Hints:
Helix content is 42%, strand content 13%.
Amino acid sequence: MHGWNGKLLRVDLTKGKAVPQKYDANFAETFLGGRGFAAKILWDELKPSVDPLSPENRLIFAAGPLTAFPLPSSGKLLVAAKSPLTGGYGDGNLGTHATVQMRRTGYDAIVIQGKASKPTILYIHDAETEFVDARDHWGKGSFQTEKRLKKEYATSVGVVAIGQAGENQVKFANVVSQEGRAGGRPGMGAVMGSKNLKAVVVRGTKTIPAEDPEAMKTLGLEAYREVLAKPLYDFWKRQGTMSVVEWGQENGVLPTQNFREGVFDKASGIGGFAMEKIKIANRGCPHCNMTCGNVVEDSEKLPSELDYENVAMLGSNIGLGNLEEVATLNRLADDYGIDTISLGNAIGFAMEASEKKLIDYKIEWGDFEEAKALAEDIVYKRGLGALLAEGVRSASETVGGDSKKWAMQIKGLEVSGYNCHTTPGMALSYATCSIGAHHKDAWVISWEVSTGRESYGEAKVDKIIELQRLRGGVFECLMTCRLPWVEVGFGLDWYPKFLKAATGVDMTMNDLFNIADRVFTLIRAFWVREHAAAWSRSMDSPPARWFDEPVKEGPFKGTTLDREKYDRMLQLYYGKRGWDDLGIPTKSTLVKLGLGDVAQELARYVRLAS
């Protein structure tokens, strides 16, 4: 086997054992890697209704067949588990040297179960695995933890770690690497903390086997040159995703005051051009030549790595218009190991609840000091912070009033940085995303704004599915970053060529789309199995605010989503996916995708249409 190493590392923290496990070419070609591997393992190995924070849950770090080859943006690592925030499938990816080092150890994934008896660091170096006492690291932030571990082992090792949020099992804690590369917003850091696992340190010396090393080298050099030659490259290097602040403001989709509005009167102070004035460096992932991490000096004179999502959610969404202060909140979140998107959502929820006097806690829009204090309370689960640490869905159930209508979440995951009062396609994308309300699977909003946001029609549904196949399928299984394609127009036709050179397997884009549909539908089956007793179409419904409360400001003043039209669009989506009227994959769809065994298992919990 080439491209793939053909081995996983199985780790049992309870027993203190690590055992290599081989997998065959059929598994590799059926699920490809990354998200595909993780979804299959979680489906096969987790009993329904298992507690996500129990030793039985699996924590998976997975690469893909292109990961760590000298190709544009090939330094991604997937982290997955059953989510403690949503109760469904959860994952995220981050760029990190740990994924390069893992591949060089000869493993394509690490599957972790059990719970260590004391805080532990997993140190993997080639064929050896050590369980190292981490009590001296427990209680430390992710930045200090990584610095200490690199000093102890070597600057070249790869490290993924949790901060205090993961240790305290905050439901939207994530995992962090390289002081700002973070992933796993549905609580992967909490799962790691529940296992008493502080960090994974990886060092490998092996060569990743390519089917055609010379072709791989030639393709890589040509591809890097093409990325550099793209007309949008220079502006991308200046601003990265930060230019979306201005775009969002212009198009009325910038989340403002807990998604009440789509425009922010201080947007110019937190946008890409404001960022350029205080920028001090760029950071990026391994093998990337279009580094998107914009490092600025924050209000405490410390470096903070910014991108659009954390600025929108910790800026306009909480009414904060000072970019240096936004950057401080972002840096603290990364160090604590807590997702910036969900954190900004939780703080916005608290500000609105305070404004409406539903909680005995005073915090006003744009109050930086109170937001900073509340963020720390969430990390340490103190007072109101303990309630918010469970996520806004759970918090709304306690706060009461009408707060469920403006708890901005779908399936338990807080909405990321796009207000959808006027964009039904993006609302549907959020609603059908494989981890909950996230933009990663299908960022359709740019296409939607340019082609007609008022439509609820078939073309929009087709575009969402196309993007889910590409972004949430092909890229998440190959484990290369989508940004070269999305942001500078790097051609999709490169990827089958990369795959052929790496593995020797000749796949067309249609073949890759078929794998994407298989993985997407398997994840859907996982969700349905976990929530079988309560499953309904409402699982795919956006927050009520977007239907019931018109925006009061900006170019689309007075606009809401149309509930009846949205429901028809959702039904059309189900039909195109081969799902029934409740959004459950049909037996024939599962069989067609090579998931006949999944159909048999799923039929034990819900009625499957033929």
